[in-house]
Known about the structure:
single chain; binds N-(iminomethyl)-L-glutamic acid; alpha/beta; binds fe (iii) ion; 36% helix; 4-stranded parallel sheet
Amino acid sequence: MDCDALFTNVHLACMAGPDIVDGAIAVRAGRIAWLGPRAQAPAATVVHDGGGRWLTPGLIDCHTHIVYAGSRADEFEARLNGASYEDIARAGGGIMATVRATRSASAHELLRQSLPRVAALLAEGVTTLEIKSGYGLDLASEIKLLGAARRVGQLMPVEVVTTFLGAHALPPEFAGRADDYIDMLCRDMLPAVAQAGLADAVDAFCERIGFSAAQAERVFAAARALGLPVKLHAEQLSDQGGAALVARFKGLSADHLEHLGAAGIAAMAAAGTVAVLLPGAYYFLRDTQPPPVAALRQVGVPMALATDCNPGTSPLTSILLAMNMACTLWRLTPREALAGCTVHAARALGRHATTGSLEVGKRADFALWDIARPADLAYAMGLNPCRMVVNAGVPREPVVSLPDQY
Ligand code: NIG
Ligand code: FE
């Protein structure tokens, strides 16, 4: 068997089956062709010596709102002075502040502001990135944002997965008419976005300051009718029954979940819906109600982890810090944190057949780390031990430069 490339003299944290110490991994046509003990490695055209470092699957940030314009540092200051996230949202700030900035930015300007954030994630070994819309809230602006998100995947070495989050907040044009907005979203926006091929999944914000479970359900029905999988911002600030709802639609994931109760946990377990935990938002909002990690673990709900990168609740562009926070704040094990950013994150995106673990046939997405053991990834804060990233078999430096025109 001849391979295109062999990455040898590495320890493999496969995240599917046991680790392989002193291993090697071979690539053909962008996919993993073989992996095993170094001594048994096949011949390859190009050989990369990993220097005895650890190789993991490329990391997957499965929940971000990373494409947006503007800053909300003013709200950060207001919250430090006692205002709550919900107070700010009700006063017309919050998500709406970012909607105003995003609507008035050109697609080029949106990318100019967003690409440095993407580059920060890529430097930490991220090879797959989910990007949500939801700061446009009218058809043209949502299409602009999703188009910019797709463009990120062309400009940068990362696989981008897009999610339509039109039901993120009620735009001012529909003030007091949330059901009319949901009607319009299901009738006009969603089909147009789907038709343009701009969404891989559909999400909603089910919350007192977002949309009701009944409204989210209508969005889900419309999404499923178009063949799109669903996920939900659920039980972040209160228990709205969102996890059970998304499980009923065989959703990919329920995300946040600080206020998740027993019924939601049972429904997720039965449906195979992934719990996406977002410690950056919990930390940044100074939340005190942790998600029910022990209960999720006990019934075997897969737990993914993500940055939730967004300007209001989680201006976080470090997936490694998200791993540390999940361990420190919620007692995930470092191994669970790594699984949360690899194999379970892939499942939360419906991409587990192609990425998320080191297995023959999967895309050759790797990160090479200068660490003594995998737990070091979740242990250190602010150190980036990434030494090489491989996207579909193509090696690159962790630090990527921004495209010229940006
Ligand atoms: O995931 N909760 C809703 N969406 C984001 C926050 C968006 C914002 O405040 O801009 C979140 O936390
Ligand atoms: Fe979010």
